[in-house]
Amino acid sequence: MTYKNKSIIAALLSLIIPGAGQLYKRAYQRAGALFLLTASAVVTVLWYQHKEWWFAPILIWLWVILDAYLFPKNSLTVVPILFWLVMAYGIGWQVTEMDPTAIFRNQERASIILKPMLRPDFTRPRTETLTSYVDIQVPCSPTPPLAERTDANGIKMSVSPNCANLNEYVVLNVSGFWPDYPATMEWHSPIGAKSIHEEFQTDASGSGILMFQVKPIVNIAAPDQTLPQMHRIVVIQSKPLGGIDISETGGHILRGIYETLSVALLSTLIGGLLAIPFSFLAARNLMGSNPFSRIIYVLTRTILNIVRSVESLIMAIIFVVIVGLGTFPGMLAITLHTIAALGKLYSEVIEGIDPGPIEAIRATGANWVQVVRYGVIPQIIPSFMALTIYRWDINVRSSTIIGFVGGGGIGFYLYQWILLQDYRSVSASFISIAIVVMLLDFFSARLREQIR
């Protein structure tokens, strides 16, 4: 059969089944790859039902037919891959509902978030503070409670009307504050989120009146915005005393950073020590001498791969359910993941050592323990230490994220501040985390250089 006839048959076969023509020409790997490429394109378009992307699998199929006709003269496979990538990214853009203009359409919401973040709440001037509050119902119920209050310092506050619906205006009346001095009004939602901020001046008697609008932002976190809930209007006056103090948020950040670093350090230390015996059992060059040791090698490798494939965040959720909230479940999760990760890395270091000393020690009739003690350990200590320091760097980042599911540390505080919409505290925690991570990265890199 001539080459041309054979190519025509190959093209017809690929017309029926993508890759069949290449299979006919005994290009087995090429046939399988092109079949999977075409089939995955067809399945993707069918699954997501974006008809405008049918051109991609059609063009890929046509190219496969042409390739079957020209092969082996043609070997350019980048064309169908480009078609597939265009389709994948295009459908991915639609599936994820990418809309960059949404940032500009929601300027008011972005301003509410970003402006406070420009003033991170880590330190504060030393001040003398006078504060009080009054509760108000939003939205109104048929019988709203009275919105007025007198505290122990003689400060009186009242709101008229005594309840409000969204976008309505209310009037705040205060008395008993410092006279002729600025005051700040803050709106606190039922979960403590701060949204509306207004400033006003008291008169010579320490009284003041402020009219403001109840904006929809005050109820944005409510699961049912039609359900009447009690919100709080807080009025604050502050006089500077000179000097700077760590704010309440700053204290939480320092405590959270300390917990995060402690969790990462303990997890790395315990996980690294427990990973060492597993690494020797998972090293092929040490465990390949007989069938029994090979079985142990396979089992150990399998267990390490399974544990390592489960993200530490998922483990933390499970441990939080078992032992409760706090830093302990976070430490357990990171420790378990560290054992699996370092166990694999350590074993690869052992597999990459110079086999000469091992063979020489074995030739003397030494047992397995003696081979490890004199032929392996002297070669692996520097690499083990470098990998352990690198893993500690990773665990610091993991400890931050694990806090979001109740694993303690700075992540736990950060999650609470996000829920409370306290964006000044969020900004301060972002900056603190970034500084700590950069410092740790700098020093760990220097330590690894010294070890090597």
Could you walk me through the main structural features you see in this protein, from its secondary elements to its overall organization?
The chain is α+β, with helices and mostly antiparallel strands and 452 residues long. It has helices at residues 3-16, 20-24, 28-48, 55-70, 78-95, 102-105, 107-117, 248-281, 284-287, 291-309, 312-323, 327-351, 355-363, 368-402, 410-419, 423-451; strands spanning 123-138, 148-150, 156-160, 169-175, 182-188, 194-201, 208-213, 229-246. Strands 1-8-5-6 form a four-stranded antiparallel beta sheet. The chain has a four-stranded antiparallel beta sheet with strand order 2-3-4-7, with no helix packed on it. α8 crosses α15 (410-419) and α10 crosses α12. It is flat and about 105 Å long.
| CATH architecture type of the largest domain | Orthogonal Bundle
Total number of domains? 3
Mean pLDDT: 86
Provide a count of the helices: 16
What is the topology, as strand order, of the major beta sheet? 1-8-5-6
Topology pattern, helix = H, strand = E: HHHHHHHEEEEEEEEHHHHHHHHH
In helices, the fraction of residues equals 55-70%
Rg computed from alpha carbons, rounded to a whole number of angstroms = 33 Å
Give the topology:
Elements: H1 3-16, H2 20-24, H3 28-48, H4 55-70, H5 78-95, H6 102-105, H7 107-117, E1 123-138, E2 148-150, E3 156-160, E4 169-175, E5 182-188, E6 194-201, E7 208-213, E8 229-246, H8 248-281, H9 284-287, H10 291-309, H11 312-323, H12 327-351, H13 355-363, H14 368-402, H15 410-419, H16 423-451
Antiparallel strand pairs: 1-8, 2-3, 3-4, 4-7, 5-6, 5-8
Helix pairs in contact: 1-4, 3-4, 3-5, 4-5, 7-16, 8-12, 8-14, 8-15, 8-16, 10-12, 11-12, 12-14, 13-14, 14-16, 15-16
